[in-house]
Amino acid sequence: MSTANDPSPGTAGANAAAAAADAPSPSPGAPAVRGAFIVLEGLDRSGKTTQVKLLERRLVEAGRRVQLMRFPDRTTPTGQIINQYLSSTASLPDQSIHLLFTANRWEAAPSITTLLSQGVTVVCDRYYYSGMVYSAAKGNPSLGLPWARAPEVGLPRPDAVVFLDLDEEAARGRGGFGEERYETEEMQRRVRGLFWGLKKGEVGGVAFEEEAADLVVVDAGGTVEEVAGGIWGVVRSRVEAVEKGESGREVRKVS
Q: Considering the entire predicted model, what is its pTM?
């Protein structure tokens, strides 16, 4: 976990449980202010990993304790199977791999909840939004967004989900594109369309009210500094709202 006195990047995934155990409890009489839960989403090669690290640094400089996480966490038992699938060395039915992605998030849910309850800001590179969107984008008629979302109910709910919007052609032109299973231009086009549907609050006649409320779109086509500025404008206001108790003092749950 990173603090104002420890500017190094925070550990993710497998180390989150240790960070949760190490985080100090609020002192007696201190206000019960929880941490904010911030998620960065986007197409593959949209710059999420870079922006997550920059956001962590900015939050630490502002005096917050921060824990970075990333999904899928490829260090866990489920994550190792997922890694084989994404690198195309293993094949699984669409429903099976989706539920493994979901299980991977549930493995981390207790640590996320503990950290937030202790006032730590959690910054996450991908979360259940990617899980359900990438599964639904496969076009399997028995695996639509409602089916994909159902096993996510009960997970910690983010306070802000920043979608780094980049058209699929621009993503394809960035280094490393095409190395993993989902990195095709057509797949990325469908993923982008579904994210925009969530932002509008409706996909295929089904309402997604929580996602519409939490999701904010930031143009990822600018310079690294420009994108970071757009993200910070969103995150700062959400973090301040959480710290003022305007978003509730209990960790929110996906419902």
A: 0.85
pLDDT at 23: 46
Q: Say how many domains are in the chain.
A: 1
Please indicate, yes or no, if residue 248 is contained in any of the structural domains: no
Q: CA 29 to CA 170: how far, in whole Å?
A: 52
Contact 105, 78 (CB under 8 A): no
> Do β-strands 206-207 and 202-203 pair in parallel, antiparallel, or remain unpaired?
antiparallel
Run of H or E residues at 60 = helix 48-61
In the predicted structure, residue 180 carries a pLDDT above the cut 70: no
Provide the residue range defining the domain that includes 41: 33-243
Q: Identify the pLDDT of residue 20.
A: 58
In a domain, 56, yes or no: yes
Domain assignment present for residue 63? The answer is yes
Q: 142-173 pLDDT, tens per residue?
A: 999 999 999 999 999 999 999 999 887 776 66
- 3-state SS class at 42: strand
Q: Is residue 10 part of a domain?
A: no
Tell me, what CATH number does 39's domain have? 3.40.50.300
Distance CA(16)–CA(37), nearest Å, equals: 14
Phi-psi region of 119 (alpha: psi -120 to 50; beta: other; left: phi over 0): left
Nearest to 2 by CA among 33, 31, 23, 27: 23
